[in-house]
Amino acid sequence: MKLIDEREREVDVPDNPVRIISLSPAITEILFSLGLGDRIIGVTPFCVRPDEARRKRKVASYGYADINLFKEISPDLILTVTGYQNTVADTLSTLFPTFSFRLPSSLGGLLDLVVKVGIVTNRVEEARVIESDLIRAVTNLTRRPERSVYIEIDLGGPVTFGNLSYINDALGFMNLKSIYDFKTSEWLIPDFDFVRRSNPDVIILEPKMFAKIKENYIGDLVSSRKWEDINAVKNNSVHITPGPYDFFAHHGPSFIREVLPWLQKI
Questions:
Q1: What pLDDT, in 10s, does the model give residues 97-108?
Q2: What's the CA gap between 84 and 259, in Å, rounded?
Q3: pTM score, two decimals?
Q4: pLDDT digits over 184-209, tens only?
Q5: All domains of the chain, ordered by start, with CATH?
Q6: Residues with Cβ < 8 Å from 191, sequence gap 6 or more?
């Protein structure tokens, strides 16, 4: 079947793909949720959800793919996300059906991605069951009174997010107003003096994926940035995301099942 992907390209997608490569951790998680785990023949090193994904063959990174390797394993469908992977998708699409999904900009976009992956892989009914389950999980959440928040993710350096990101949208849904929500951008490099002046009630820090956290990680960071007088620091409301994997930076179904309940608790 011919479908238009989210880069406005026509893609000849097989009706029943059986050799799928996913270059997105979120899409990999969705494929497993749809019961297609046994059809995945390749992923990236960052595809760690569910546990079974870690045992799949690593065939590419976010921004690089070995064409000869792809020719060897001969996928009948490659799934990517827009943005940083556009160049790789352009190269791969000359040889294989390569469908690109837009990176979500809202909490609703995460739900929409599940359905879209279901459409492309001919698993629509299963995708809508997952969507319904996730909607119920969202509606059962309890939100606290509004507080201001600064969130930072280490993506090879500190990165924060503007109002084009699903991260800020999800924070807002949980009544956490990002100090950078006025910025019309997906991500940006934070200004530590601006963070200090903004005096957020909550600070959320997501270390680099797979990194080992030093014992005094928060104390050293606060001291180096002169953040001692920020409300979040004084009220002991500086939080490190759990586990060694992407947490906020991952936009698969587990974002709703794990990240939002975690926000409810902090």
A1: 999 999 999 999
A2: 24
A3: 0.96
A4: 999 999 999 999 999 999 999 999 99
A5: 2-137 (3.40.50.1980), 147-265 (3.40.50.1980)
A6: none
